Amino acid sequence: MKDLKVIFMGTPSFSLHVLEGLIESTNVIAVVTQPDKEVGRKKVLTKSPVRVLAEKNNIKVLTPVKLRNEYKDIINLNPDIIITCAYGQMLPEELIYAPKYNTVNVHASLLPKYRGASPIHYALLNGEKETGITIMFTDKGMDTGDIISKRSISIGSDNFTTLSEKLSILGKELLLDTLPSIIDGTCERIKQDDNEATYTYLIKREDEKLDLNKPCMEILNKIKALCEIGPYLYIDDMEIKVFDAEVGSDINEDPGKIINVYKNGIGVATKDKELIIKRLQVPGKRVMDTRDFLNGIDKESLKNKYLK
C-alpha cells in the first residue's frame, strides 16, 4: 500500500498510533489537524500531538480554523483516501466524497453505540465491561456511516489514559488490517441501526463535579473517566481535584463526611461505601499522592469534615 496517497485528519494523542501505522504502510501526503492552542495558566501556544508527529516526519500540515470554509486545499492535493481519527470538526460533504476511496473514520466505540465526541469517556462513566474500535465510511451525519469492521476490547480496571492507549493501538491494527479490502472493493458495508444508537457529547465543567450522594462505584467511574482533567469537589471553600481513588468498605454515614484519614488516603462516605481518595490536587499545588498532601496538615482536623 506504499503507493496509496493518504491524507490523515486527527488531533490528540489518541490519533498518534493510527498516524504512525499509516506513515509506515502508506504514502501520507498531508496531515490536517486543529490549530495550535493556548495551554496552561501561562497560555503557551502549543501544537497538537498529531502536528508534532507529522512535522517530525516532514509531512505537510494544514490547520484550518473552520474546515467548512477551508477544505479546497485538501481536495487539491488529490488524495486517494482521507482517514480521520479524532479530528475535531465535521467534514463538508464535498470533501468526504472527493477522494477515489472516499473518507474512512477510526472511531473509539462499537458503533452504533457511543457516537459523537467522547466515546471513551462515556464507556468509563457508564461502567462498560467492553468497548472497541469501529472502522466506518464517513457520511454527513455524526458517526452514522456504513460500518466496515469492528474489534472489541475488555475494559477491566482501566482509566481514560490506559484505555485510550489500548484503543489507539487497536485502531492502528484494525485500520491496517481493513485498508486492503477497502482498496480492492471487497470490504463489508453494514448499515447502522439508528434505533440502537446512543450519543456522547463534549465534557463540560459542570460534568466534572463529583456528587458524593451517588453510589461509590458510579463516583469511581467518573474519576477514571476524567482522570486527565481531575473531577472536583470542595472542602470548606477549597476546591480539590481527584485523580485517583478506590472503593472501601460498606458504610452507613452521611455522604460527604470524612470518616477515615489513612497513611495514604482520605476516606469519605458516599451513598453506600467509603471512597478512598489516593491522588489529588489543591489550588496552587501540583497533582500529588494523598500521602504527600497529608504530610503538611493536621490529619485529625480533617475527620468529620465534609466534602461537597
Please render the helix and strand layout as text.
Layout: E1 5-10, H1 16-25, E2 27-32, E3 37-39, E4 44-46, H2 49-56, E5 60-62, H3 72-76, E6 81-85, H4 93-96, E7 103-107, E8 115-116, H5 119-125, E9 130-137, E10 147-154, H6 160-184, E11 199-200, H7 216-225, E12 232-235, E13 238-250, E14 258-261, E15 266-269, E16 273-281, E17 288-289, H8 290-295
Parallel strand pairs: 1-2, 1-6, 2-5, 6-7, 8-11
Antiparallel strand pairs: 3-4, 7-9, 9-10, 12-13, 13-16, 14-15, 15-16, 16-17
Helix pairs in contact: 1-6, 5-7
Could you please describe the fold and organization of this structure?
The protein has 308 residues and is an alpha/beta fold. The protein has 2 domains: 5-200, Rossmann fold; 208-301, Formyl transferase, C-terminal domain (Methionyl-tRNA Fmet Formyltransferase, Chain A, domain 2, Roll), CATH 3.10.25.10. It is built from 8 helices and 17 strands. The strands form 4 sheets. A 7-stranded mixed beta sheet has the order 5-2-1-6-7-9-10. Strands 12, 13, 14, 15, 16 and 17 form a 6-stranded antiparallel beta sheet that branches. Helix 1 packs parallel to helix 6 and helix 5 (119-125) packs antiparallel against helix 7 (216-225). The longest helix is centred in the middle third of the chain and has 25 residues, at 160-184. The model has no long low-confidence stretch (mean pLDDT 95).
